[in-house]
Amino acid sequence: MRTDTHTPHLDGDRDWRDTATRYALLPLRVFLGITFVYAGLDKLTDSAFMKEAGAGSIGDTMRAVRDSSALPALVDFALDNPVGFGYAIAAAEVAVGIGTLLGLFTRLAALGGALVSLSLWLTVSWASDPYYYGNDLAYLMAWTPLVLAGAPLLSVDAVLRARRRRSGGYR
Question: Which pTM was predicted?
Fold first, then answer.
């Protein structure tokens, strides 16, 4: 029976479980990266969304959720400039998605994704009943492993880490 939780790979003998463990975060990283890039671009290209008022606008959406959100003060802050807030959320989603897909500053990108998801959960989807109907909480939890582990494989971070090790500047 296998009881270890981590194989050091010192002998180079890897079985399929070791390989699967090493690549376990890659599907999550790809899914979250693509989803956040798509969500940001969708907002940026939706002419109805980036308006203070009107059907499908960021302004009307924020006014509709204000009284049912966990943090109405955050919604009020966003309502001071709903279009600017919409652009900020969209730009953050694109930046987080690209950083996650490339594996560039992955922990920082994942933290950004978690913060975007947390802010949307506490405002837009807070009143979802039952709570699991709101997807923002699930996204918040999905970012957590990437905040903790980063992108150890197939990433710019891994290339930079290997380069630092070769040059002796980092262990």
Answer: 0.84
